[in-house]
Amino acid sequence: MTGKDLTTVKRIFARCGLAAATLMLAAMPAMAEDAKVDTGDAAWMLTSTALVLMMTVPGVALFYAGMVRKKNVLATMMQSFFITALVTVIWMVAGYSIAFGEGGTYSAYVGDFSKVLLSGLSENWDKPFTLGTGDGAVAFTIPESVFLMFQMTFAIITAALITGAVADRMKFSALVMFVTLWSLLVYSPIAHWVWHPNGWLFGLGALDFAGGTVVHINAGVAGLVAAIVLGKRVGYGTENMAPFNLGLAVIGASLLWVGWFGFNAGSAGSSGGGRAGMAMLVTQIAAGGAVLSWTFAEWMIKGKPSVLGAISGAVAGLVAITPAAGFVLPGAALIIGLVAGLAGLWGATALKHALGYDDSLDAFGVHGICGIVGALLVGFLSYGPLSATTAAPDGSPGGMEQFIKQCIAVGATIVFTAVATFIILKITDVVIGLRVSEEEEREGLDVTMHGERIN
Amino acid sequence: MTGKDLTTVKRIFARCGLAAATLMLAAMPAMAEDAKVDTGDAAWMLTSTALVLMMTVPGVALFYAGMVRKKNVLATMMQSFFITALVTVIWMVAGYSIAFGEGGTYSAYVGDFSKVLLSGLSENWDKPFTLGTGDGAVAFTIPESVFLMFQMTFAIITAALITGAVADRMKFSALVMFVTLWSLLVYSPIAHWVWHPNGWLFGLGALDFAGGTVVHINAGVAGLVAAIVLGKRVGYGTENMAPFNLGLAVIGASLLWVGWFGFNAGSAGSSGGGRAGMAMLVTQIAAGGAVLSWTFAEWMIKGKPSVLGAISGAVAGLVAITPAAGFVLPGAALIIGLVAGLAGLWGATALKHALGYDDSLDAFGVHGICGIVGALLVGFLSYGPLSATTAAPDGSPGGMEQFIKQCIAVGATIVFTAVATFIILKITDVVIGLRVSEEEEREGLDVTMHGERIN
Amino acid sequence: MTGKDLTTVKRIFARCGLAAATLMLAAMPAMAEDAKVDTGDAAWMLTSTALVLMMTVPGVALFYAGMVRKKNVLATMMQSFFITALVTVIWMVAGYSIAFGEGGTYSAYVGDFSKVLLSGLSENWDKPFTLGTGDGAVAFTIPESVFLMFQMTFAIITAALITGAVADRMKFSALVMFVTLWSLLVYSPIAHWVWHPNGWLFGLGALDFAGGTVVHINAGVAGLVAAIVLGKRVGYGTENMAPFNLGLAVIGASLLWVGWFGFNAGSAGSSGGGRAGMAMLVTQIAAGGAVLSWTFAEWMIKGKPSVLGAISGAVAGLVAITPAAGFVLPGAALIIGLVAGLAGLWGATALKHALGYDDSLDAFGVHGICGIVGALLVGFLSYGPLSATTAAPDGSPGGMEQFIKQCIAVGATIVFTAVATFIILKITDVVIGLRVSEEEEREGLDVTMHGERIN
Amino acid sequence: MKLVMAVIKPFKLDEVREALTPLGVQGLTVTEVKGFGRQKGQTEIYRGAEYHVSFLPKVKIEVTVPDELADAVVEAIATTARTGKIGDGKIFVLDVERALRIRTGETDGSAL
Amino acid sequence: MKLVMAVIKPFKLDEVREALTPLGVQGLTVTEVKGFGRQKGQTEIYRGAEYHVSFLPKVKIEVTVPDELADAVVEAIATTARTGKIGDGKIFVLDVERALRIRTGETDGSAL
Amino acid sequence: MKLVMAVIKPFKLDEVREALTPLGVQGLTVTEVKGFGRQKGQTEIYRGAEYHVSFLPKVKIEVTVPDELADAVVEAIATTARTGKIGDGKIFVLDVERALRIRTGETDGSAL
Ligand SMILES: Nc1ncnc2c1ncn2[C@@H]1O[C@H](COP(=O)(O)OP(=O)(O)O)[C@@H](O)[C@H]1O
Ligand SMILES: Nc1ncnc2c1ncn2[C@@H]1O[C@H](COP(=O)(O)OP(=O)(O)O)[C@@H](O)[C@H]1O
Ligand SMILES: Nc1ncnc2c1ncn2[C@@H]1O[C@H](COP(=O)(O)OP(=O)(O)O)[C@@H](O)[C@H]1O
């Protein structure tokens, strides 16, 4: 790898997730055989991986389970928990290869099968990892095992987030089939577009620090499509569907918040430099801002500041800052947070009611909408020096040019995931049937799907 | 910065929080332009920040919510959750500046507005941070973003702890106003006194490793004043106010315990040297000791060892070791823990009943009393070499001289926070009214303040 | 320490827990006076310690409490919580010394009292720690305080795991006495055998990366013996003993899963090299595989995939990978996980019913059985290079020779713990009485042992 | 006065309450109960331990009404709560000798 | 014997129980119920979905007493449970034909 | 018809239900209640605040049966639920004027 190659890497890589790695390059010795894992970076990435896993189990599991009726609490937890296991194995078998394999003729769109079953990992397992080859290669200071584990936790949570839209009425068997196909055919390709140096959105220079498109817009739109295809819950709009135990949702949202530090600051790929620190700081500020704006808006509109509003606001802010976390300053983060709180409130109330679909727990209303808000706002608000490299000392300052790239990334993600999710759902419906019977729905999924109940 | 300056820094800084940073100085190259963030130290401080956030959400939220009656569970969680967001924004806007700005004429007592809205952070964001200037400067191996985020989580938890004293009867709107003023006018100044090199208690050489005065005595005394000003809960002493779900409190206490490793070992400012490790170890020992002494004492006195006693003991021990964590050996930690368990039990039962105030969840009884116990005991028990530096090879060994300094720090904190909290409460009372109506209190805050309930 | 000594260390140490330390040796300067703590390794080990503590409180506490009836929820939590404190103090007072003291004449079997009350820790507290002396010494890059805290969390969780077997019917006072004796007389010696360089199983070259024998087989077998000695619960087999709130168990299992990253990847002793990363990866894969195999098997056999099955599968997989975590490749981990899921299901259902004991929460069925499965399978599946050192470039590849060593380690652990546990229980029975009265059992331990209840 | 005690399926509660208001019923009391009857329960299996849960969640409505209203109330509940599927529940009518409104001390008819 | 069934505000429970003891009432049974009545419930809003919760938490006391004690018991409950605010609840009296203490098999008067 | 209302110890529920089936009882309704009586409660202490919890968990069974079955049912419950220890509970019998099966509209005897 020549000096010029490295420069190219830095320029491109600075635009996307795990970007801080490039900052390390300057300081690192040439990528020689004897490169060593940086113990501090590795420590942070191992920690971040644990934090992101915690976001799904128990984070999302509780956040969602706290919002459903008593009869569906366990089934809702089961969805996140089982998906964690399922996507783990899927990712190991083929998902990682499709997302982060070099790819062949269509390498801009999809990886290949070279890393199926993680083949190749037994070599260089104790050496720093380089993603991609040739000009586009991106060098890390951590081993591939850590890189792929960290990425695995993203694949897991994305699938788990979708379950919020289909809660209370989807067959468990159908969910298993759907997630298997979706993870391989939708998640992995989009991750390749955005995070593999060969990916077309990576090449375009669209900014997505930690997964605004790949994770949140993706899950949100998939959820919306699934909610529409499945149809409304029995009794929606007429029966009382008040959450059984919002306390669980508060625990879930809290662990999401804490875990999000791994999600965003971990996406710096390193603890050194200052990007991880800045990412954590702006994550916190955006979350705080969104709690305030959602809560105060609800207070004014509905007369009371609700707990569900506050925790939803936190998630809204965290989602919106995700694509921006490594690229914006605190002031911009506060703006993103305040806007996200209002956007989420609008998405989960006005928009949903206006369009009339039943997105049970607002996977689209919060993750979809706020993911879009964040992905677009970073186009204007990104601060050059934060993404600057020696090759591109100005980094990617916000502006119309960047905004257009963001629009392309957002649009492409929406269209692809909407169409592909729809097709996968229809196939699953034919093979298994998507929805439980009305009687099972009335009785609740806990007992009918899993033979258990909480007391 | 000359060699002599550095020496001075070390001598002073070794006496207070984040002290381990000084140990690093010896090993570091001169504070040149090209100093680099230590990836290992940064990894640990990022992790610690996540751990301390987890202490408030969901830690304190659950610890407190598990002790109230069913009708107030969500409202109690809401207080901690919302405060997390509120103090985040307050800290970013002005709190950090008031606490860690250099300050002008009264720089021994309060910072200035130079860091309002975190201005200045966009420069040197990827460089190690030096707190203060000139002789008193303290050099870190982590960037300012990480330092200020870590400190933010302390500002958050301190405000959240107060809510235990006012649970079940304070208006949510009044709490929002109170916390806003209190965080800016009470917390930030005291943090400046103790942790800024210009602060008068810092200069005095009072030992407070991780916040015995700033966090626990401060929150405990503020809580006591608030409990007295608000008055007793309706039905206090006559109606059954048994905790609705102590299971939540056990989860909360557990996460407090785990998170406290970030609180105390993170206050070493670094993972290197041995101070973080020793701080974690003595934290664990003190917590364990206090669980044993509280539980066995209760067992003897009341006939049964209660779960609430055990978890309260853990918190008591953790509080008491906080000011001492980086300065004492395991044996001393065990003593501190054993004493704290008994002191907490006394504070939460005998003292409270003797004086007749209604500190609903014993914010003062546990945090105030045990904070005082720890802050005073460290005066006798601190082990020189742990706080030693090249300039002061004896460190701060315990003794009468040190004990007097501790008394001054404790006394000053108590007096200032008591008076200021009282004034802020009175202002809030005039503007908004502190307390809900008796009917609202009867019906519960969940439904009357937030329009929600758990089922 | 000569070069040859170091080589010896590496060869031996690579076979057991905390093995990655050896990989560091090659890269380290001679073990001179001025060796420094590696900030990155220290950061990861501090984090791992927090994660492993989280496994017990609230992890095991919730996992178990979620499976008992309403009347025993708090008592079950109390057992884990109190044990955390109790074993902390026991470990500090003597447990650590018995486990990691050099030992005298019988140094292959037990340590000595040289480290009682952690004496000696005040020296070299800021230096890297070397375990053992002379030829067998093992050098770490972290201070002893961190090493002993990390180990303490293992001693804690092992004792806590046993409580699953005796849930619902053991006197609290008897449990306190039992755990005190058991921790000192059973846990510490076995830890010495396996993890101290002088230990006979260490010398034998049996592989146990993170505690398959010391923790899981040990706790599982002790639990089995205790379940048999205590006898069945009143109403076992006739009354409905359905779990009161499996939601708690899901939270517990999730935190166990997350915390297990500290347990296994922390057992690498370092974040550098690649062992921690590989350990984390295979941990995740085994957990995922076991969830799938347990769930699908149950689905086929019983008609429904249960939540309790899924979370039990996760624990089964995590247990089984524990002895293997640093030594196997992802493919082998998947096999271990799939086998463990089936083995756990068999242990918790068929085996238990066939033999007719009442292991309330399947401490033996899951931890015992899957610990054995993992400890034996690693004999065949371990991958040489992962445990390779310069002295032994082939490491410990799986095969019949290694398998026999594993059988010896497993057999010795089972026999010793079974006999010693039985004796300790009998002594406790004579002194205090093991079991509550039938009336107390009917009324529930929450109110009769602890004077509290959940509502 | 009569106490009409009805055990119904939980999701029918709101509908039933709304059906009673037009008849002049101004108050009623609801209890969560578990019902055992012809409707089969579910089998729950926890790690191999099977429990046939014969008790299903139901809701019990208790409403005291003047004698002349009793039939209409029974009728209204029966109609609204009916799904035609097994487990719809029962209605029992008991005689009430006295009624009293605590707030005012009003008795009988005017207490309801 | 009479079954006195009272629906009261939950926080009045302890007071009521204490008021009955002097009358010679040695046992009673309490159920958590939800009441619908003149007292308005609260509106709960969850992300824009409004539920008017017309049901308020109440406590139902059931106590069987000898005929001659019924009036005093009703009186005692009414007095103690009264706050004068809407929602104080109701008391109904029903006739009980038989009573039996399970432990001893005693019946009627001596069963209570 | 008679309404047999029994308050028993919770762990006896399954046994009692099984004892009623042979008598021809096809349905019953169960409520979790708290009982106050001769059986002493426990004292709970939370950080020094003592609450004597006089209420103990009990289960209430309500079963409506034809007049001729009432005695047998009372007898069966009394026998099965008896432990001989204090707190075994009570059985009360009330008269039911009407019964109706919601699903079919059947009334009285055939509604049960
Ligand atoms: N004899 C009875 N006494 C009291 N409650 C009854 C009786 N029979 C049935 N119930 C209640 O009615 C509910 C419905 O009865 P079930 O026999 O399942 O169906 P259906 O109402 O269609 O006949 C039961 O769950 C139970 O709560
Ligand atoms: N007709 C009735 N039958 C049964 N319970 C009733 C009836 N009317 C009222 N209740 C119960 O009494 C409670 C109080 O009644 P409500 O009309 O709100 O106020 P008040 O008691 O002041 O008239 C209700 O919540 C309900 O539980
Ligand atoms: N007069 C009563 N009216 C209604 N329920 C009663 C009455 N007396 C007792 N009970 C119920 O019966 C239960 C058992 O009564 P208790 O006096 O404790 O013991 P025993 O049944 O052995 O006499 C009580 O907990 C209560 O629920």
Automatic annotation (TrEMBL), chains A, B, C:
Keyword Transport assigned: yes
Predominant location category: membrane
The family this protein is said to belong to: Belongs to the ammonia transporter channel (TC 1.A.11.2) family.
PROSITE patterns for this protein: AMMONIUM_TRANSP
Transmembrane helix found in the keyword field: yes
Annotated compartments: Cell membrane; Membrane
Organism: Neoroseomonas marina
Name of the protein in its database record: Ammonium transporter
Automatic annotation (TrEMBL), chains D, E, F:
GO BP, sorted A to Z: regulation of nitrogen utilization
Gene3D superfamilies attached to this UniProt entry: 3.30.70.120
Entries under Pfam families matching the protein: P-II
Source organism superkingdom: Bacteria
One CC-aspect GO term: cytosol
The protein's name: Nitrogen regulatory protein P-II
Keyword Transmembrane recorded: no
InterPro entries per record: N-reg_PII, N-reg_PII-like_a/b, N-reg_PII/ATP_PRibTrfase_C, N-reg_PII_CS, N-reg_PII_urydylation_site
Positions of modified residues (O-UMP-tyrosine): 51
Subunit details: Homotrimer.
UniProt KW Nucleotide-binding keyword: yes
UniProt-recorded Gene Ontology molecular function terms: ATP binding; enzyme regulator activity
Similarity comment: Belongs to the P(II) protein family.
Keywords: Nitrogen fixation, Nucleotide-binding, Phosphoprotein, Transcription, Transcription regulation
